[in-house]
Batch of 2 targets.
Target 1
Amino acid sequence: SLSEKLQNVFKKLRSKGKLSEKDVKKAMREVKLALLEADVNFKVVKKFINRVTERAVGQEVMKSLTPGQQVVKIVRDELTDLMGKTSSQINYSPGGITVILLVGLQGAGKTTTAGKLAYRIKKEGHYPLLVAADVYRPAAVKQLQVVGERADVPVFAMGEKNSPVDIVKASMSFAKNNGRDVVLVDTAGRLHIDETLMEELHQMKKAVHPHEILLVVDAMTGQDAVNVADSFNKKLGIDGVILTKLDGDTRGGAAISVKAVTECPIKFVGTGEKLEEMEPFYPDRMASRILG
Amino acid sequence: LTSHKKIDEGLFEELEEVLITADVGVDTTIELMDDLREKIKQEKTSNPEDVKDVLKALIQEKLKQYSGKLPDEYPLVIMVVGVNGSGKTTTIGKLAYKYREKGKKVLVGAGDTFRAAAVEQLEIWANRADAGIIKHKAGSDPSAVIYDALKAAAARGIDVVICDTAGRLQTQKNLMEELKKIYRVITNEAPKNAAVEVLLVLDATTGQNALSQAKLFKEAVDVSGIALTKLDGTAKGGIILAVTNHTHIPIKLIGVGEGIEDLQEFDPEAFADALL
Ligand SMILES: Nc1nc2c(ncn2[C@@H]2O[C@H](COP(=O)(O)OP(=O)(O)OP(=O)(O)O)[C@@H](O)[C@H]2O)c(=O)[nH]1
Ligand SMILES: Nc1nc2c(ncn2[C@@H]2O[C@H](COP(=O)(O)OP(=O)(O)OP(=O)(O)O)[C@@H](O)[C@H]2O)c(=O)[nH]1
Ligand SMILES: [Mg+2]
Ligand SMILES: [Mg+2]
């Protein structure tokens, strides 16, 4: 683990007595490697190392009797800070219908997460409505209907012959007429470089003014996470992120990259395929996981 | 790459950054850069413009050792495995279509009996590809579905059986055991003269975890080929270098879209080109 590697670096250095800038550089190299191996984006790592180095060559480390532990603490603290706060609530509209849009790349976990969110929102005393706006993927509508059935939440669908924008517009009237106060829209997976499909999301946003546009990201995403998040944020505007498949052994550095480039909170994390397997996001736990 | 007047450390750093950003990973990047410096010394390369091409050739060489072709011997059984959402079911649709285009009779086995609407999704692909499908009701034993598919294939003179399995994380021990059981059914029940291919589907957007996926899936069901999907995005799939290095599994196919024809045979030259 990184803590062990840093302890080793500083063990060798302690015999020399004082700590030099060169020694800190050695330690920072270990931090850089650990973060890259955890899939944190290269440019984000560079910025992070610069900030940590600045603190590490300061008095708190140079004069410390346990410089190794000090550096580990600084790295952990800075990483936790980068992750933001725990802000795992849904921003419900103060009056009227709350509209939440789930967006992201193909296979990230949007449909499954829509079910989890619906389940949670219902438990919080609201009346959610799931909307099947993916008309492209074979049996996507059916998948959401099965998920809705399991969560005991109604699903609004108009088959696969209508445009997603029309479906979402129609779902709003349906929600109003049926006492549903939260509309949860499951959209088709898409590439951030697909202009037509990104424009479709833009049209959807203009039509129903979502309160939350949540980007669903697979926790095992590599360096590309930064491009995806940046693109979705610039072209559409993101209010929050949900990180999925954290029940695996991926370190999840994509979390840092996404947070760094969008400055949006990571609201929830997916920890399995079942409805209840979604938890609030804890920055300190994520920091520990990334540091290995 | 910015233009350099001579081959200097700045040029090497830039190339390192390109590799890391392509998900090649730290260890493999260090290895490649060492080989690059060695090659440049050997070939007495002096023009900085040529350095990138030397690196490209090195990467191509590595990949050529481990690239393979779509299996072309019959009867053929293909078992498709991989983590959740990587593109297995869609890839099966594309594969079924490819074999139908070759005039082969294809049957798909709906071995994902767990996920919502997994069978319905596969059935739509089978219809599009003009392939038969064997399915049981939701929650049934995947091994039983695959057993039935193999028996039906033998009875109907099917050339290619493609088995879909549920997505699973390589660290889920009970699910990996389930996969081993399905594999045993295939090795026991496939015709004695059948070729068996275990195809691991990896998502090109995946980072370093792809290496753990390849290692553990190989350990469990002796993966014989890799399909790298979603290369039509901006992810480069550089992790495939470490994967082939460590596991020696040949990369056979790449997914470049969501349409039935968006499956291509792996081309090391094109891949190395796109990587840099
Ligand atoms: N282990 C695990 N699997 C998950 C998690 N979230 C989703 N999945 C699985 O990931 C796969 C893809 O999930 P989907 O919900 O279909 O993904 P999607 O984003 O809607 O996919 P598209 O609509 O095709 O873009 C499914 O097998 C899910 O069961 C999670 O947190 N953990
Ligand atoms: N852009 C792009 N999308 C792809 C590609 N291959 C698959 N997809 C999409 O990725 C998503 C997931 O594909 P699936 O075939 O359902 O993946 P899977 O591995 O069977 O998923 P599970 O069974 O849930 O584990 C779908 O939206 C597919 O259309 C590809 O090569 N390019
Ligand atoms: Mg979906
Ligand atoms: Mg599938």
Target 2
Amino acid sequence: LKIAEMLVENQDDLLVPVNQVAHVREDNKLDHALLVLTNVGFSVIPVLDNQSQLKGLISMPAIIRAVTGIKDIHFEKLNEIEVRDIMDTEIASLREPYELEDILHHVVSNAFVSIVNKEGIFQGIITRSGILKGTNRIAHE
Amino acid sequence: LKIAEMLVENQDDLLVPVNQVAHVREDNKLDHALLVLTNVGFSVIPVLDNQSQLKGLISMPAIIRAVTGIKDIHFEKLNEIEVRDIMDTEIASLREPYELEDILHHVVSNAFVSIVNKEGIFQGIITRSGILKGTNRIAHE
Ligand SMILES: Nc1ncnc2c1ncn2[C@@H]1O[C@@H]2COP(=O)(O)O[C@H]3[C@@H](O)[C@H](n4cnc5c(N)ncnc54)O[C@@H]3COP(=O)(O)O[C@H]2[C@H]1O
Ligand SMILES: Nc1ncnc2c1ncn2[C@@H]1O[C@@H]2COP(=O)(O)O[C@H]3[C@@H](O)[C@H](n4cnc5c(N)ncnc54)O[C@@H]3COP(=O)(O)O[C@H]2[C@H]1O
């Protein structure tokens, strides 16, 4: 896909590596996950297991919904439920080696794409910002 | 900016009109805002005043931070604080008539751009999805 490759420069810089990606563990409780999301400010972050495999995605609306009853939000239940019970398991992800074309396809409907290696170990994410920064530089020439 | 105009087809379809945009009023209390955000699932939404002027942006992390103390989250305080007290007033917005070039500039660092008319009345938003859908169609030809 020549246009795509022309549009996005510096493909090596695209990956936000795992050590820069905010994430939680699937066995964390929701109060911990809520605190992480509140502190980092990202709306959706990956969920990993204890072997660094990608298991799901967690967001604040999902957490609040999990403790919302008919009349009230039951915040005291946050330390009773684990992330794995409510995480979204439908993840936009690609296994290495990936094509830029697949990234572009995913970011049309997903704010970021998760990257795993051949063994399924989480490597990092590629974000819409990363793609748009590369594209905008070309568009301004 | 010829490349930009070539890249994004159907510019008339880009605007998500005001009646399709989830928003809250600046005099709403935080418990109402939290409920709206939980129900619609969007991470950040516009805040309007009673004359439909754009006043700010509200997100869940901002709401949770506003009631988080040293040791605990004080959820009971949600009905004591108004949206206007904590909303983000730094808004990526454009006044009509706007150039596509300005939209492209904004979406590099903002997930959406808010559009207001000459009188400052909120008209709707343009999202990264909208831009990327138009771009991807071209890139696949
Ligand atoms: N702390 C910050 N500093 C500067 N700009 C910020 C920011 N937090 C958010 N933004 C801006 O808001 C966009 C949407 O962020 P959101 O958290 O909803 O959605 C994010 C989040 O769900 C995820 N993400 C990005 N970076 C992450 C990281 N380091 N760790 C975990 N998740 C990340 O990827 C999505 C898309 O990110 P993208 O950069 O394309 O788009 C970001 C970026 O343009
Ligand atoms: N209900 C849903 N159905 C389908 N896809 C969904 C969805 N909710 C979120 N997404 C996907 O996740 C992206 C990030 O959504 P977020 O709510 O963080 O960030 C959103 C949200 O802050 C705002 N936004 C979008 N549509 C909105 C609306 N109708 N009302 C209020 N805010 C909206 O613009 C940002 C960027 O939106 P964008 O569409 O580019 O990107 C969306 C879209 O690709």
